Automatic annotation (TrEMBL):
Protein name: DNA sulfur modification protein DndD
InterPro entries the UniProt entry points to: DNA_S_DndD, P-loop_NTPase, Rad50/SbcC_AAA
SUPFAM superfamilies assigned: P-loop containing nucleoside triphosphate hydrolases
Entry-linked Pfam families: AAA_23
Domain Rad50/SbcC-type AAA residues, every copy: 5-120
Top-level division of the source organism's lineage: Bacteria
Annotated organism of origin: Mesorhizobium cantuariense
């Protein structure tokens, strides 16, 4: 198989219609597509899968409604914020059948009409519609050409590499590997032979044969029912999620209209009453402060003077300074007795300052008012003054702060009560109850369908085990007639062939893996052997001493190399000539491992290798090493003002002055 081109129209970041040529030149297998993060590299890989598999590209259990929603979301959204009304992905490829190469073209196009999405599939072979297969089976035809499980080992990204590099086995990977190596085909042949023996044994009254045929028939019926039930479960899951979103939106409207407050009206009213009582208590406390020592606390200088007066009140005054100052003032006016010297204004000011500083005017005045107090009363007054200066101000400030906080809470509670009185909340409440009932009903139905699906899967697995047991017993039994004996020998031969084929493929896979891993790893000969489980295909690495190398002991880069080597070995072992599409495989690798992948993997991985890379993965140095293997390249340029990506021939730096990243085509 060779990919010729891919066409995208209004898909993801790709506006309008854009076509990329993917057919490599002879001897140059690599097509390099560069783009910075968010430019649309992964979108190209997604488009290839979507063109080939449609809904199946999203997973096994995806409802039709989810698929249609996915297609709507993948429509390009323009700079005006409006999505396109249609989109398409198309893929042209060569595929060999019976030694003859045919050219196929598959196009999936979808249009939106409100919330509805309509998809059309076009499949052409050598320029004409494929008429050998009914149109409604084109989906299955494409999946048989390139099974989805097999394609994930050829069309992969960094996530697939990380998935394979995990320590725990992957059941999906094991199934894909069996299909890729052709082992499941032998199993189907054994089942067909068992049916033949069953029909033959029925004519001879063989109850076991009748039972085997019934089991195979029941398994086929269960397969159909499981597939149908899986689609029902996926559809119900999507519907439940949609109804849950509707219920959430209604609840938000209900709260906005005051419905939540209405349900809590009694609680809100009790909270309001409690807040009012607290406000009243704080206001009373502040009034008591205002009628007590708070005014003194607001005049600290006066307090200090009064304290000084109390301190000196017990002392016997040397002279009545007030009377003395009055007599000096009278002397200044009357000049009696007569002054000998000539007193200037400055002399009088100096004398006044001296008298003021002797004891302090306020203290002198206060002495007269507190001098008659006894020592106990003076100590009590001093204590009150200390309390006013050190405690009263801070306590009053705290009370004011608490009062302000309580008043803010009270205003919010009053607003809730106003909202709770709205009439719109009652209408929204009915809508909310209806939405929540719908969610509950959908959840109940979904739970029931899920249980049914689990039951059907359990029944199918039980019948499959019984079928395998009977097939094994049947091939081991000696048939009486010549045809039965021949069929039995063929069954034994197939069983032996399957085992030997598996052993041969595993041995080949092990050899290829060890070779590929050591070819790519920084530590030459690090892995001497590998042991691969026959059922899970989980690999255990062995070093030169025969000891196991736990996968968890590998570095992050070595785990990436392990995954890439396994994918490479599987491709070589399968013998399938499929192209490789690799999306950003170097992001988690150091410089040495990156160089090894670029020099040794990309040029040899397949006859066609499409590499999707950022400018930091395949940089100027790596580009220089890879250039001899590159057929042509594209650069994905994202234009923010258009909110769109354009695919331009060339790589990073092409057309720039200096062009240090430029790809020089030979």
């Amino acid at each position: 198989m060779r990919l010729r081109s891919i066409t995208l129209e209004n898909f993801g970041l790709y506006a309008g219609r854009q076509r990329l040529d993917l057919l490599p030149a002879r001897g140059r297998p690599v097509v390099l597509i560069g783009g910075k993060n968010g430019a649309g590299k992964t979108t190209l890989l997604e488009a290839v899968r979507l063109a080939l598999y449609g809904r199946r590209a999203l997973g096994y259990r995806v409802a039709q409604s989810e698929y249609e929603e996915h297609l709507r979301r993948r429509l390009h959204v323009g700079s005006d914020g409006r999505p396109a009304t249609f989109g398409s992905v198309g893929l042209q490829f060569d595929y060999a059948e019976g030694g003859v190469v045919h050219q196929y073209e598959v196009v999936r196009r979808w249009t939106t009409r409100g919330t509805k999405t309509v998809e059309t599939l076009t499949l052409e072979k050598d320029g004409a519609p494929v008429d050998a297969v009914p149109r409604d089976e084109w989906h299955s035809f494409l999946q048989e050409m390139i099974p989805p499980g097999v394609s994930q080992l050829f069309f992969f990204d960094g996530e697939k590499i990380a998935e394979i590099a995990r320590d725990d086995p992957d059941e999906g990977l094991a199934e894909a590997v069996r299909g890729l190596l052709g082992i499941e085909l032998v199993g189907r042949l054994r089942t067909d032979l068992g049916l033949y023996l069953a029909r033959h044994g029925r004519r001879d009254g063989n109850d076991e044969a009748v039972r085997l045929e019934a089991i195979v028939r029941d398994i086929s019926a269960l397969d159909r029912r499981v597939a149908e039930m899986a689609e029902d479960v996926a559809e119900l899951t999507s519907r439940h999620a949609s109804q849950s979103r509707v219920a959430l939106n209604v609840r938000q409207r209900f709260i906005a209209e005051g419905g939540d407050a209405a349900n809590r009206r009694a609680q809100i009213e009790a909270t309001r009453d409690e807040l009012r009582q607290q406000v009243t208590r704080r206001e009373t406390e502040i009034r008591e402060f205002a009628g007590g020592l708070l005014p003194f606390a607001s005049a600290p200088r006066l307090l200090r003077r009064y304290a000084t007066a109390l301190a000196h009140a017990g002392e016997k005054p040397r002279v009545d300074m007030v009377e003395f100052r009055e007599r000096v003032a009278a002397w200044r006016k009357t000049e009696t007795p007569t002054r000998i010297g000539r007193w200037q204004e400055s002399h009088w000011r100096d004398l006044d300052v001296f008298l003021e500083s002797e004891l302090g005017t306020a203290a002198i005045a206060a002495v007269g008012s507190v001098s008659e107090l006894d020592a106990g009363e003076r100590r009590r007054f001093v204590g009150r003054l200390v309390e006013a200066r050190e405690n009263t101000a801070s306590r009053a400030a705290l009370a004011v702060s608490e009062l302000d906080s309580l008043q803010r809470k009270l205003r919010r509670v009053d607003a809730d009560l106003v909202r709770a009185s709205g009439h719109a909340a009652g209408i929204v409440l009915d809508e909310l109850l209806l939405a929540e009932r719908s969610v509950g009903t959908a959840e109940t139905v979904l739970r029931a369908r899920t249980e049914e699906l689990h039951t059907l899967e359990f029944q199918r697995s039980g019948l499959a085990r019984e079928r395998d047991r009977m097939l094994k017993a049947q091939t081991e039994a000696k048939a009486g007639e010549e045809r039965a004996a021949l069929a039995t020998r063929v069954g034994r031969a197939l069983q032996l062939y399957e085992e030997r084929l598996l052993d041969m493929k595993l041995a080949q896979l092990q050899t290829e893996f060890v070779s590929r891993f050591n070819h790519l790893a920084r530590k030459g000969g690090f892995v001497a052997d590998v042991r691969i489980d026959r059922s899970s295909f989980d690999a255990t690495l062995i070093d030169k001493t025969g000891a196991e190398i736990p996968k968890s002991s590998l570095s992050a880069g070595e785990k990436q190399v392990y995954a890439i080597a396994m994918l490479w070995a599987l491709a070589r072992t399968s013998g399938r000539a499929l192209p490789m599409i690799i999306d950003t495989p170097l992001a988690r690798l150091d410089s040495e491992h990156r160089t090894a992948i670029v020099e040794r993997y990309f040029p040899e991985a397949s006859h066609q290798v499409i590499v999707l890379s950022t400018d930091t993965e395949v940089d100027a140095q790596l580009l220089k090493e890879l250039t001899p293997s590159i057929s042509h390249s594209y650069r994905l340029d994202y234009e923010p003002d258009q909110r769109a990506t354009r695919a331009i021939p060339g790589y990073f730096g092409d057309g720039d002055e200096g062009g240090q990243f430029a790809l020089q085509q030979a």
